[in-house]
């Protein structure tokens, strides 16, 4: 947790004022019992009303000053802790955004949410207590012991006995609850994971009638969390009765000793009253310290989890500025590229080689798990290739700054995601100061303009988080419009047409063809009809390229592509395609002779 105290540096002056205010509060609080004893001994015993009145006014002023110190310390402790919490959340959020997919998967989304919210809250609450009590309680305890010794030295052993009991109790409490805090935070991760999973997959759960199963799974995790929480609370609740027992026993001993002295010295009454108040202050200080000693280990667990995120460095590092000058003509080239996850054996991609040129569409097709999406994810550096080189415009992607690389790419992921806002804000999400003309043109290309115009507020219509208030096809088209609005050099469509009907798919590809004459288009698809007009189709099987060419070339030369075609075309359609294949080959031979 000490590592997080670096966040206190911007609040040095506030902390200084806080410490001074705490010192003022402690000084005033320690003065009052002595003044009360003075009133009893010198005022009441001597029947001196004027002395009682004067001292009483002075006590009132001291109380006001002490209260003012309390208010100032409470204000600044809250302000500083809230500022530290804000700064930690800001840094955590920025750090998470800088993570590659690998680091995000390492922590899990649910755990990152818990660390940014629950763990930061734990640290904030502890810092509020630390800032207000970590200075006050020790000062108060030491000051009260000193004052008690000055007032009634023969009763100081009572406080020493109370402190010994409280120390033993604190050690037992801390030793009992510390291991449970780490378990509790992991259980919180589990609860957040199940909540997020169920909210995201609620339609699937209902469609498969698995509500009872998911409820039981959540109930089990929730009960385990509750049991752990209750065990912590039970141990913590022992504080009050034990503190009250120690307090009452201290008071009883003080009265017993005091009364035995009163028989021969009536002035001991004031000392006894003052001593009892100082004893109370010592015990209360230890109560607060015990609470801190319990809260600090719990916050320390949260602080470690926060530091784990802050200390994690992304495996994908971008230079601040692009290191090479790219060629003017856009291209994407893979040279002997291989990729494998550390958590799995073998390669997901193995020795991939191809060049995608501007004005041409390069498509990727293959069975599930063949590595299509993984290959596409290497282009914007969501992952880095484990072997080989990837070049954009003749420059290795590792030599591009993050902004330079991403600004060149318009990505449409497999699952189109929309952000809370409006249609306008979603389409222009990746464009600075985008114009209405830019937005409407992108919507037209993406075949989204028609349904947008029918919306209540058209482009100002509200979109809910995740785009849940529009259909899957509409969500996909808005995602495509968002990429088109960037006017990038490289378009990356990761199975982005799967939610579209045949007519919309055809019209969209036709419109895209007109605006991508100077751009590279990379398309991952499941349907052959989506990519049949692509200038280059790459067939993947178990991470390797098993076919490369046009639609008709692959039908003739690539058995894997032919199998895919058989699964998607009827017998008559396939026969017609194969007949055209023969015709295309004849045309190619004639054109080659003519060129010669």
Explain what the structure shows:
- The chain contains 21 helices and 12 strands.
- It has 2 domains: 2-311, ABC transporter type 1, transmembrane domain (ABC transporter transmembrane region fold), CATH 1.20.1560.10; 331-567, P-loop containing nucleotide triphosphate hydrolases (Rossmann fold, 3-Layer(aba) Sandwich), CATH 3.40.50.300.
- Strand 11 and strand 12 form a beta hairpin.
- The chain is an alpha/beta fold.
- Helix content is 65%, strand content 10%.
- It starts with 11 loop residues before the first helix and ends with a helix.
- It has helices spanning 12-44, 49-98, 101-107, 109-134, 136-151, 156-200, 202-207, 211-237, 239-262, 268-311, 372-378, 402-407, 423-427, 436-445, 449-453, 472-485, 502-515, 528-531, 551-557, 559-568, 571-595; strands at residues 331-339, 349-357, 361-366, 387-392, 395-396, 409-412, 421-422, 462-463, 490-494, 520-524, 536-541, 544-549.
- Residues 16-298 form the ABC transmembrane type-1 domain.
- It is found in: Cell membrane.
- Residues 332-567 form the ABC transporter domain.
């Amino acid at each position: 947790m000490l590592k997080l105290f670096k966040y206190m540096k911007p609040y040095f002056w506030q902390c200084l004022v806080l410490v001074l205010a705490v010192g003022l509060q402690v000084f005033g609080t320690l003065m009052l019992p002595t003044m009360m004893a003075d009133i009893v001994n010198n005022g009441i015993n001597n029947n001196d009303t004027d002395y009682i009145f004067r001292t009483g006014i002075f006590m009132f002023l001291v109380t006001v000053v002490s209260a003012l110190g309390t208010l100032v310390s409470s204000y600044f402790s809250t302000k500083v802790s809230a500022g530290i919490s804000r700064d930690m959340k800001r840094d955590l959020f920025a750090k998470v955004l800088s993570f590659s997919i690998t680091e995000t998967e390492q922590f899990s989304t649910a755990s990152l949410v818990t660390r940014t919210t629950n763990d930061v809250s734990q640290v904030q609450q502890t810092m509020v207590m630390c800032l207000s009590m970590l200075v006050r309680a020790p000062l108060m305890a030491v000051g009260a012991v000193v004052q008690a010794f000055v007032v009634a030295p023969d009763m100081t052993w009572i406080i020493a006995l109370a402190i010994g009991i409280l120390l033993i109790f604190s050690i037992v409490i801390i030793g009992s609850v510390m291991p449970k805090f780490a378990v509790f935070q992991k259980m919180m991760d589990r609860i957040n994971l199940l909540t997020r999973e169920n909210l995201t997959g609620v339609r699937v759960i209902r469609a498969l009638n698995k509500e009872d199963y998911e409820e039981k799974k959540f109930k089990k995790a929730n009960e385990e969390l509750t049991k752990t929480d209750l065990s912590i609370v039970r141990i913590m609740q022992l504080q009050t009765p034990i503190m009250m027992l120690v307090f009452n026993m201290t008071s009883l001993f003080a009265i017993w000793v005091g009364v035995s002295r009163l028989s021969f010295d009536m002035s001991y009454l004031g000392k006894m009253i003052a001593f009892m108040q100082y004893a109370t202050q010592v015990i209360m200080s230890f109560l607060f310290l015990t609470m801190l000693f319990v809260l600090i280990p719990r916050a320390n667990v949260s602080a470690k989890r926060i530091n784990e995120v802050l200390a994690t460095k992304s495996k994908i590092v971008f230079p601040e500025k692009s290191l090479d000058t790219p060629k003017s003509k856009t291209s994407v080239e893979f040279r002997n590229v291989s990729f494998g996850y550390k958590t799995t054996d073998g390669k997901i991609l193995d020795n991939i080689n191809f060049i995608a040129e501007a004005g041409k569409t390069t498509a990727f097709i293959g069975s599930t798990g063949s590595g299509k999406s993984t290959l596409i994810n290497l282009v914007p550096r969501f992952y880095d290739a484990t072997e080989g080189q990837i070049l954009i415009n003749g420059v290795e992607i590792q030599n591009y700054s993050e902004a330079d690389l991403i600004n060149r790419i318009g990505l449409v992921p497999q699952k189109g995601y929309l952000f809370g806002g409006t249609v306008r804000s979603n389409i222009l999400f990746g464009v600075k100061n985008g114009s209405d003309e830019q937005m409407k043109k992108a919507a037209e290309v993406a075949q989204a303009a028609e349904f947008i115009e029918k919306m209540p507020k058209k482009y100002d219509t509200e979109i809910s988080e995740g785009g849940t208030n529009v259909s899957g096809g509409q969500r996909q088209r808005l995602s495509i419009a968002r990429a088109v609005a960037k006017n990038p050099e490289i378009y990356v469509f990761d199975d982005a047409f799967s939610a579209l009907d045949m007519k919309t798919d055809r019209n969209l590809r036709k419109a895209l063809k007109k605006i991508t004459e100077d751009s590279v288009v990379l398309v991952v698809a499941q349907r052959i009809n989506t990519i049949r007009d692509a200038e280059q189709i790459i067939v993947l099987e178990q991470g390797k390229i098993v076919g490369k060419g046009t639609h008709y070339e692959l039908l003739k030369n690539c058995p894997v592509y032919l199998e895919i075609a058989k699964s998607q075309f009827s017998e008559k359609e396939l026969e017609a395609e194969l007949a055209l294949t023969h015709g295309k080959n004849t045309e190619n031979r004639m054109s080659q002779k003519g060129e010669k």
